[in-house]
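ESCALATION

Customer reports they have been waiting on this structure for their group meeting. Please prioritize. Original submission:
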Amino acid sequence: MVKRRSSAEAPAIREPGRRTYLMCRPAYYAVEYAINPWMDTSTPVDAARACAQWETLADVYTDLGHEVLRIEPEPGLPDMVYAANGAFVVDGIAYGARFRHPQRTPEADAHEKWHRAAGRTFVEPEHTNEGEGDFTYLPGRELILAGWGFRTDARAHAEAADVFGRQVVSLRLVDPRYYHLDTALAPLDGERIAYYPDAFSPGSRLLLERLFPDAVIADADDAAAFGLNFVSDGTHVVVNAEATGMVRKLRDAGYEPVPVDLSELKKGGGSVKCCTAELRPQR
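Update from on-call: job pushed to the front of the queue and completed.
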């Protein structure tokens, strides 16, 4: 039984602890194919601007006191900048990715080599999954939320439960624009989330309502501006600057929004969270 917290209770985890993030500079970033509804190969990409925006994001993390590690970009892998998709890390264990689309398949090997070289326990996946794109972790509840419907095979959820020894809640995504969980839902702290209800099936919406009665609810404009593809340390929320409505909601909910312009990287279907893999150490 998943423990639920009354909306009258204060958030359990609000202090911004030091986080470690893995990122990949968009040295070879381009929109060369279309594997999600946001990608348009006829839209030009300013590669230099994308790199500048990415560097600003990395600087924001370090200015907030977090550690940023880098995985080297590889030619021929224009989506490697979306580092969150390469694995899902909890307790220092990396559960590897197995990408749905062949264009991204080699990224999984690059991330596996990086994690193994870092001395991290690495678990090769049996089922298709796209790392933190479709998995997130709430340490205050010891709970993993996992998306399926477009990129990740639902069988990977049971696999992740075995890897990490934690309960996994499966959530079905139904809107192809929000093809990864991290485009439709994000943790605000160890227990609270924000999400866009219409991205989920009726049953999954009902489950989210019951588990998270105090969630910050995004609307269609927030979601379309990638306002849910954010990274929070429990106090500061680094969010796409285009999502002005979401910025207001976050501030009203008691968090400190930190807007960052990632307009070039949004052309590939990703924003703040897509570019940021969290490396959660053993507790």
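Sent to customer with the following note: The two ends are 22 Å apart (CA to CA).
Escalation resolved.
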